[in-house]
Each structure stands twice: as structure tokens, then as C-alpha cells.
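Repro:
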Amino acid sequence: MGMMRILDQLLQVQRGHLLAWGPVFLGLGIGVYFALPVEPGAATYASVAGLGVLCAVPALRPQAIGLLARAALLVVVGFNVAGVRAHLLEAPVLSYRYYGPVEGQLVHIDRSGRDHFRLTLDEVRLRNVPEDRTPAFVRLSVLADDRLPPVGARIATTAHLLPPQGPAEPGGFDFRRHAWFKQLGASGYTKVAVMMIEPADTRLSIARIRQNITSFLHQRLPGEVGAVAAAITTGDRSGVNQATLQDLRASNLAHLLAISGLHMGLVAGFVFGALRFGLCLIPALALRVNTKKIAAAVALVAASGYLALSGGNVATERAFIMVVVMFGAVLMDRRAISVRAVAVAAFLVLLRRPETLLSPGFQMSFAATAALVGIFAWVRDSGLTLGPSWLRPVTALMVASLVAGLATAPFGAAHFNTMSHYGLPANLLAVPVMGLIVVPAAIISLCLLPFGAEALPLGLLDAGLRWILWVAQSIADLPGAQRRVIQPDSTVLPLMAFGALIVLIWHGRLRWVGVIPVVTAFGLWTQASRPLVLVGTTGQLVGVLGPEGRALSRDKGQSFAARIWLENDGDVATQTEAFARWNATAAPRQKERTTVLPQEVHLDAFSIVHVTGRGAARLLRTCTSQEIVIATVDIAPAGPCEVFGPERLRRTGSLDIDGLGKITTASEMAGIRLWTGARTESGNQTEAYQRPGVRSLAALGSN
């Protein structure tokens, strides 16, 4: 009872500030759902629901027990919301490699990492595939350099399709989970022309308006300027090439390209400020009505239009919810910008799309917003000033850029393995131009477009975007503008976020206890280690970590896995450079008069034997207990070695082998989930989840 009394006193002091913890506990429940190794069945959901019922009555009490019960209820709600959404989005997934005709309606165009156009289709038809087993959405990379049909057209082509693939390494980003929540049942590529078999609907619609505006911007602002203008206006980034994207990332300006919180805030803020200023110029109106609420209502309408115009993607939807909360507070005479407003926005976003909790966009946008609100609230409440009145806008911008950069840097480094050294000066040079010139010019030009008077604002838009692109290129060209960062352990970001939330939300001296988990997280990050050996899902690519970095067994091909491995290592080498390390590390296992030989890498506790092709497989007749054989063809050498051929790798996925020879498979790490192809309700392990390779070579040799 003494502990409960102390806890009650601590929590009672926090009354009025506990709302911000709501999305934290909701997110905890969502995180528990995604962390489970086995898809929960009816019994699990019943148990969780029972826990919620037990917490319902004490949750009504005002004491600490009531607050703890409400927190538990939010965890239960988060768990169930994530599970329900995962089941509601269930859609057919292609179960084999497909080659043949593909037909569907074009709904989205973007670019792949290789700078190819990528088409997303719905209403898909595949040859000899029943309708109830046809994916809801299919994504194709177009290798042919042809003019693409407009969005909304029905197209046909011949393509290679694959089911969504698992992680490039055990515990890595699982594209299957990402695709599941997008109902993306297959992806692939086509090398032939894409034919339009039915034109797009010519009736006036949001999609048609977006397409017309995109085409207009590309025509009036040719080159990369028009492509970036279309990206920030309609969300169509298909015209932006990889070189521009790389410059923006290296200079920490990539956020200017994504329609998210900054753009939505600038659009709504510009409309709100311009309208309120204009109404105040009419004394008869300004003295009789609340111009602030009128401006807020119109700004909400403008934000809604921008949401529709930009395509309504997840990031834009998230930003729109935050704007709705902010202007809703204005209409209700509440403080518009506060930690509570951020908490309500996060709560609504997680209820709407619980899977976004795992996305970099959600984590970075709310980290930046919460940090900015917290810092400026502290400045306001402490009575500090940011210098003379004429200097405050500049000082506020510098503080905002510094705080947002520091808040998002750990998440960006963890997810993308990069850090920009000159992000602060780049943002100081580019963000004011975006807010003062680019966004107002874009809004005014679109408003004047029907009247043919858009020339002047378009000129300002062109000048502003050219400045931003010049800043991005100049910063990216500086020596050491960007560096690679090693992938942290999976506990680092949650621990860091938990500590930061305590510092931000808790009131009183105990808030500084949150510094401990933050410092601990950074300490764990500095001690992060990478797998000694990585094996790709097909066995064609093997990577061995050495003193000079990871050595890769191929100089080309399997480039996606190669890039992911090197990035997670914090390695700046290209695949070709990593292959040169392989030549210095590996040696032919035996001498034969052929150029195709099994390659062997000797490590302290074991050896890796890589067999590519049938010729090399015929040469490997025997093996020892201290060898792990990775083969691209079926092989059965005599001896007690561990063999991973194509069939076994299809079940296990990619492999992680540590210094003692312990093998961890991607299927083990991913578990039995909806997106891994599991359909079990009893919790029994399927063949894909069995651990055929998780044992040490020491144990293997003793058998």
C-alpha cells in the first residue's frame, strides 16, 4: 500500500498532463502485436479482451489504480486495433513466380531505386490465375524507356512477377509486412512496352485534376524544377531522378520533397494568415465577427483540398490530421499548438493506420513535432526571448531547424544508415525559401491558373525551387557531407524514444530520469555489431565481414541485398568494391581445369563454401563438419556439413551466421504471421518457421 500511495502522489501531480501518454500506451499495444512471433488466434484475442474487461471498472477510479487501468486499456485497444486491421486488409498474395500477360488499371506512378518508372495496378488480371487468387494490387518496374499511359488508364503488358520477398537479412526490414498493409500481392518488372487498352476516364475528377496540374507544371517548368514542383503540389514524384533525390538526402532536404507536415502546415498557415490579415483590413467586419475562426475554417477547407490534390498518401493524411487538430483547437478556443494537440493527432493516426507506428515517416514527423512544441513551450513558459524583435524570426528558424534536426537524426540514421553533417545550414538556406516563396507562389499560381494570370507566381516558384536545388547540390558536393552509420540493435530506438518521452511529457524534476535510457540507447548503438556472414535468399550472394569491410561474392546481380548489407554495415563501398575484397578473401576449394569452382572462405570456427552452378556442384563431392555449404543448385555432398541449397533457402530465407557458426534464419525472426504466409490459429509451427539451421558447428561436429 505504501508503494501505491507514493505512486498515487506522483501521478496526481501529473494530472492535466497525462493525455500525452495516451498514444504512448496505444502504440505499446500495437508494438506488442507486431512483435509476436506467432499470429494470435481466437484464444489470444479473447484473453486480451478479458484483460480489458477486468480493467474497465478500476479505470473509473481517480486514484493511481485508475490511471494504471486506463493505461492497460489503451494497450488492449492498440493490440486489438492492429490485429483487426491486419485481418481486414487480407488480400490474395501470389504464391509462385509468374511470367505472362498482366492487365490492370494504372493507379500510381513513381520511381524505383534504380531510377525506373514503377507502376501500381489494381483490378488486375493474370493468365490462368482465378479471380479469388489474383492480387488486389501489383507493382511493376518498367525497364523500357517508353511514354507511359496516364493514371486511370487500363494497361496491358508482359511481365515477370514474384510474391513480396522477405528480409534481405534476418531481422531486417520485412517487405512482406509492408506489402500486406498495402494489399500489394506481387511485384516485378517488364522489359516490353506498356500498351493502353482503355483510356482514362475523361470526366472531371480529382485524379484527372492532379494529372492535368502535373502535366502543366512539367510543361511550364521543364527539367528537375518542374518535377520537384509536381512532387510538392500533387505528390507525383515520378519525374524526379535519383541524382536529385540523392542530393536532397545528402543535404538533409529530402523532407522538402515529401508532402507531409511541413507542406501541409505551410499551405494551411499561409491561407490562415493571408485571410486573417485580409479580413482585418475591413474594420466593419473585423469588429463584428471572429476573423480568427473564419480564417481557421477556411484554412481547414484549403488543407482538405490539398489532401485530395496530393493523392492522400499516408504521410499527407498524417499531416492533415495534425492540421485538423490544430485548427479545431482554434475553433474551440483552445491552445492550437501544444503537446496535447500532438498527442491527439498521434492517437487518431494510430487508430486509423496502426501499422504506421513502424514507419520512419511516423516516427520522424512526430519526433520533430513533439520536440519543437516542447522546446518552444519551454521558451515561452520560462520567459526567455530569442533576441531583439527584428531578429526573432531568424533566431526561431535556427532553433527550429536545430531542434528538428536533432530530434529526427537518430531515427533517420537508424532507418537509412546515413547522417548529414551539413543539414542545419542547408535547412537554414532552403526552408525559409520554401515557406516564404515556393508554397505561396504555388498556391497563388494554381488559383490564378483558370484566369491565365499565373505567369508571375510561376516565375517566383521557378526561382525558389532552383535556389533549393542549388543549395542541395552544393551541400551534397561538400567533402564529408554524408556518412554511413551502422545498423543499431532493435532495442535502441524504443529505448531512446521512451527516454525522450519522459523528458518531454513528464512535469517536475523526475523528467530528467529520461536522460538515462537515452544515454543508454546511444551507448548500445556504439557497441552494435554486425553478422559475420550473411547469405541471400537464393544463395547467389554471400557476404563475409572482414577487417576492411564486408566482402561480397558477386560484383553485380542481387544488388538490392548487397546494397542493404553494406548500408547496414555503415560501409560506403559499392558492390564492385566489396567484390574485390572477396577475391582477396576467398580461394578455390580445389584445383581443377575449370573457371567455375567452389569458393571457400576460412574463418576461425568454420568455413563457408560457396557453390554456384552445376559445374561447381559436381566438383564438391565431400565436406567436413566444419564447413557450411551455400549452393545455388541442389547438392548432396558426402559428409557431416551443413548444406543450404535452393529448396532449403526458400523455406528459411536469408541467413545470419555468427562467429561460432550459429545460424539464424529470416523465417525464424519473422515468425508465423499473416504476411509470412501463415494460416495457423492453433500456434503450431509450420515448416517455414521450423529452425533447420539454428545450431552451432561445435554441436554438429560432436554428433
